[in-house]
Amino acid sequence: MTPIPPQNHSMFPSFNARALGLTLTACQTVELAARFGFGGADLLVRDLDEAGEDLSAIADLFVKHALRPGAWPLPMNWRNDQAAFDRDLDQLPKYAKIAKQLGLVRTCTWVEPASLDHSKSIAKHQTRIWAIATILEDHGVRLGLEVIGVESFREGIGKPLYHKMGSDAFGELFSTLRTRVPTLGLTVDAFHLYAAEESIRVWEQFGIGAVVWVHLADLPANACGARTKILDADRGLPGEHGAVDCRGLLERLAELGFTGPVTAEPMSGCRSLADLSVEEIAWRTGQSLSQVWPREDQTGTASRFFSASVSELIRLGAISSR
Q1: Number of alpha carbons in the 13 Å side-chain half-sphere of residue 250
Q2: Looking at residue 27, which CATH number applies to its domain?
Q3: Is residue 62 part of a domain?
Q4: Per residue of the chain (322 residues), what is the pLDDT tens digit?
Q5: From CA 75, how far away is CA 92, in angstroms rounded?
Q6: Whole domain around residue 279: which residue ranges?
Q7: What pTM did the predictor assign?
């Protein structure tokens, strides 16, 4: 396995196939990210392990294409019953080790936006997330907590709990956990901040060093914009509608020196990507990110991102050269 060089650069657009409704191997994901001008790629560690993919081949592709390893989704539902949680926790060191080998040192999980029993839920968050974050920290991986701001997501599951990043409840949870696991951080999701009626800069109270991963999505192009009507699975590409200030978020992150992955997350239900080929989906996603990406003088790297997209799509015959 070719060692992946240490990464100490600016933030970068990271290609995430699953967040676009695509099912690809890890190697296919990295190759597609390179072909369409992304700066890195996110991978599904559990899936690539279960599929028996060659870790050396994946690592070599990152090096060959000068791509940066992005992030990986936490491969467990820690909200399950105790027996299921214990089984998943037993497997986590294996996945964390693989992730570290590939340079994927960031992952995330979401916290419960509502609960029928706040006391029980708070205790579960503190004990289980601590256990998860400790294992990840031992393997050099950071965990970022994500807040789900979509109101419809919490309907029928109790009273609001961790539905706002700026709430006292979330602040207390984060502070308690970070005291025990200093590497714990945040996943800043622009779509959920908008849905929760929070400032695009609410995360700043925790410091730029707390930001682990960034997710971007907008409302669909023709959405009315009413927050109470937002559905978690009904999203648009970054910049598609304009209600979600993706550019403003990235500009602030760049200004403060964020160095991690930025992932477009319109999900599989995105109407703008419906009926497109894999190549067209990658190209359109890259173009949406390029439209909200800060100017080169803010990041120092913008000029090389997405530059191969149009020529590659013309070569593939997916769009016309005229």
Answers
A1: 28
A2: 3.20.20.150
A3: yes
A4: 554 444 446 999 999 999 999 999 999 999 999 999 999 999 999 999 999 999 999 999 999 999 999 999 999 999 999 999 999 999 999 999 999 999 999 999 999 999 999 999 999 999 999 999 999 999 999 999 999 999 988 877 889 999 999 999 999 999 999 999 999 999 999 999 999 999 999 999 999 999 999 999 999 998 987 888 899 999 999 999 999 999 999 999 999 999 999 999 999 999 999 999 999 999 999 999 999 999 865 555 544 566 554 555 555 544 444 3
A5: 8
A6: 12-316
A7: 0.92
